[in-house]
Automatic annotation (TrEMBL):
Annotated motif Histidine triad motif, positions: 103-107
Protein name (database record): HIT domain-containing protein
Catalytic residues as annotated in Swiss-Prot or TrEMBL: 107
Keyword terms: Hydrolase, Nucleotide-binding
Limits of the HIT domain: 10-118
UniProt-recorded Gene Ontology molecular function terms: adenylylsulfatase activity; nucleotide binding
Pfam families xrefs: DcpS_C
Keyword Ribonucleoprotein tagged: no
Organism: Carya illinoinensis (Pecan)
InterPro entries in the cross-refs: Histidine_triad_HIT, HIT-like, HIT-like_sf
UniProt xrefs under PROSITE patterns: HIT_2
Domain of life where this protein originates: Eukaryota
SUPFAM superfamilies membership: HIT-like
Length: 150
């Protein structure tokens, strides 16, 4: 479940700046940094400051939709700034059981993949594969309020 930072979570340590990492962006909601095992020309991670284990812990509500939207906007801004020569970008999340760290993190990739075989880690395989950020946003978008006619 979402909640307080976990002392054993490496991403919580990065978010609280208790683990030395080059931070590309930081605000009250998210922190962004380079992936330690890049799979593309540029490969960044955007994580929430709050400990949220994975995409399965997000719900169709304004707060979660707003958080993922902000994560995506930060990732897009960083890649446009740092890899303007790239013409293709990918943004998404690994889903359990294929997520490597139990702290929600958005992969921001400026393609091509390097080396090319690393694209395998980012295949969409239904409910267990790589989930594109836009598809997650569709799932999280709050429903409009129902207005009853009297």
């Amino acid at each position: 479940m979402a909640g307080a930072a976990s002392a054993s979570c490496i991403f919580c340590q990065i978010a609280s700046k208790s683990r030395p990492t080059t931070i590309l962006h930081s605000d009250e909601k998210v922190v962004a940094f380079e992936d330690i095992s890049p799979a593309a020309v540029r490969h960044y991670l955007v994580i929430p400051v709050e400990h949220i284990p994975n995409v399965k812990d997000l719900q169709r509500r304004t707060e979660d939709f707003s958080l993922v939207t902000h994560m995506l906007e930060v990732g897009q801004t960083l890649l446009r700034r740092d890899a303007p020569q790239c013409t293709q970008y990918r943004f998404g999340f690994h889903q359990p059981p294929l997520n490597s760290i139990n702290h929600l993190h958005l992969h921001c990739l400026a393609l091509p993949y390097t080396p090319r075989w690393k694209c395998v880690k980012f295949l969409s395989l239904g409910s267990i594969g790589f989930l594109e950020a836009e598809k997650l946003l569709e799932k999280l978008k709050p429903l409009p309020p129902v207005i009853s006619k009297v």
